[in-house]
Design goal:
Blueprint (H helix, E strand, L loop, with lengths): L5 H19 L3 H6 L8 E3 L4 E3 L1 H10 L8 E10 L3 E10 L2 E15 L2 E13 L1
Parallel strand pairs: 1-6
Antiparallel strand pairs: 1-2, 3-4, 4-5, 5-6
Length: about 130
């Protein structure tokens, strides 16, 4: 199995960048489009456990647009074959300088593009 095929990696990096821009811009339609629309899609957040796209949609649509700016560090994206990737990153927010966020995403290529099928966000003390 090829790991980090340059073409595949570039595709996932672009999808990841699109997700990040949508997240900090609170572009809910794009955020929803980048998650696989399936009851088996999971997102564990800082204060919520979301099972299925319906729960993820409800969370995104009710979340405040305030305080979403953040800076990423240590981002690692690894692709496995042509259709699977894992993205890991750390983040800090100006509103919480003493905290470090951690985000992991599993991406899968579907006929309509790369989608997150599992995500986890947590925050720890710096």
């Amino acid at each position: 199995m090829p790991i980090d095929d340059p073409t595949v990696k570039a595709e996932v990096e672009a999808a990841f960048a699109r997700y990040e821009a949508a997240l900090v811009g609170n572009d809910v339609p794009t955020l929803e489009a980048l998650f696989h629309d399936d009851p088996r899609t999971i997102r564990y957040g800082g204060g919520e456990n979301l099972y299925g796209m319906d729960a993820i949609r409800a969370f995104r649509r009710s979340r405040s647009a305030e305080g979403l700016a953040r800076d990423l560090t240590g981002t690692v994206i690894t692709t496995y074959g042509r259709d699977c990737a894992v993205a890991m990153t750390l983040f800090t927010r100006p509103t919480a300088p003493d905290r470090i966020g951690r985000q992991s995403q599993t991406w899968v290529r579907f006929p309509d593009g790369w989608k997150v099928v599992a995500a986890h966000v947590s925050v720890i003390d710096a």
